[in-house]
Structures are given as structure tokens and as C-alpha cells.
Design a protein that fits this description.
The strands form two sheets. The protein has a five-stranded antiparallel sheet with strand order 1-2-3-7-8, covered by helices on one side. Helices cover about 30% and strands about 25% of the residues. The protein is built from six helices and eight strands, in the order βαααααββββαβββ.
Length: about 180
């Protein structure tokens, strides 16, 4: 995990993951974010997009404005995983390898901490950074640079490349069914 910011919901988040057997021995907000993502994706087997919806959900007013069936899923995820919601200013990058190797970037719902994405080498290389200059200093010819929308994940999967750009709703283009 790479984390920029401060998780003000640390106490609630810590108690939540401890209910599932995790022990927060480092006492850092980065540690609790790792455990939340592990809990949601590995133990609860949520798709990564849904786990991101849980930690950085839309505001109630935004959910109420959605037309169609995805509003109900947003409500259900927000209510079910309320203690997993991260509050405070943050941008995070989380790498996972339980299943496909994935890198995910996410900001808080107000985007109080910066996060930019960039591609190079015809899209074969993807960068996540809090500063555009950090990407440009690498000396590679950068193809594209963008800033994801607040609370929307950027997802890069090994072998597939850029799966989500962070510019669209996490559910767009994906059918997610729950039993």
C-alpha cells in the first residue's frame, strides 16, 4: 500500500477488521486500509469495484439521483459495509496478488488528496502518482495524463492493462449479481 493522507475513521475501521480476526499491531491507518481491502476482496469475495464502493461510497444524495438498478446496489453496499468506509483526506494505491495481480488507486469522495494516472509506451505502462511531475521526471514519453474522479477507482490488472480509468462509475459496463 502507498497512502497519502489521514484516515479519520481509523478507530471505527480498526474495530471493524478486528471483529474478523485481524490484529492491528502497527496502529497505522495504512495497516487498517490493507486489512479492509483484504477482508472485502479475499474473505468476503467482493469484486474490487464493489470493495472500492464500500470504502469510498457515493453520498446519499448522489445515490438518490441514480436512475436504474445500480442505486439499490450502492445503498446495499453502503449500509452493509458502513464500518469499512474510509473518512478523511486520502489517496491510496493498493497492490494485490490473491488471484490476478492488480494495482488499484483511489481517492476520498471529495478528492482532498491528489491522485493522477498516466500511461506510457502505447499504454503498456501505467503510473499512479500524487504529482504529474513525478511521472514526467522518469524521462519516458508519456502518452496520456489524467486525474480520476473523486472516489472512483483506477484498476490495472497484469496481462489486461488498464481496466478502469477512474473516470466512470465503478459499475459501468459490469454486471454484478449477488445471491
Amino acid at each position: 500500500i502507498v497512502h497519502n493522507g489521514e484516515i479519520t475513521s481509523y478507530g471505527t475501521n480498526k474495530r471493524y477488521v478486528e471483529m474478523f480476526g485481524y490484529q492491528c499491531t502497527l496502529m497505522t491507518d495504512s495497516e487498517v486500509v490493507c486489512y479492509i481491502m483484504d477482508l472485502l476482496t479475499r474473505k468476503h469475495k467482493l469484486p474490487l469495484e464493489v470493495a472500492c464502493m464500500a470504502v469510498a461510497p457515493m453520498y446519499h444524495e448522489e445515490i438518490d439521483a441514480i436512475d436504474g438498478g445500480s442505486a439499490e446496489l450502492w445503498r446495499m453496499v453502503r449500509e452493509t459495509y458502513r464500518p469499512a468506509m474510509l473518512n478523511g483526506p486520502f489517496s491510496i494505491c493498493v497492490g494485490m496478488n490473491d488471484g490476478p495481480e492488480v494495482l488499484m488507486g483511489l481517492t476520498d469522495r471529495k478528492k482532498l488528496r491528489p491522485l493522477i494516472a498516466a500511461t506510457a509506451r502505447g499504454g503498456k505502462t501505467v503510473y499512479l502518482s500524487s504529482e504529474e511531475c513525478a511521472v514526467r521526471v522518469l524521462g519516458e514519453e508519456v502518452d496520456e495524463v489524467w486525474a480520476p474522479r473523486a472516489g472512483n477507482p483506477i484498476i490495472i490488472e497484469k496481462g489486461l492493462g488498464l481496466v478502469r480509468t477512474g473516470e466512470t462509475d465503478p459499475l459501468e459496463g459490469r454486471e454484478i449479481a449477488f445471491a
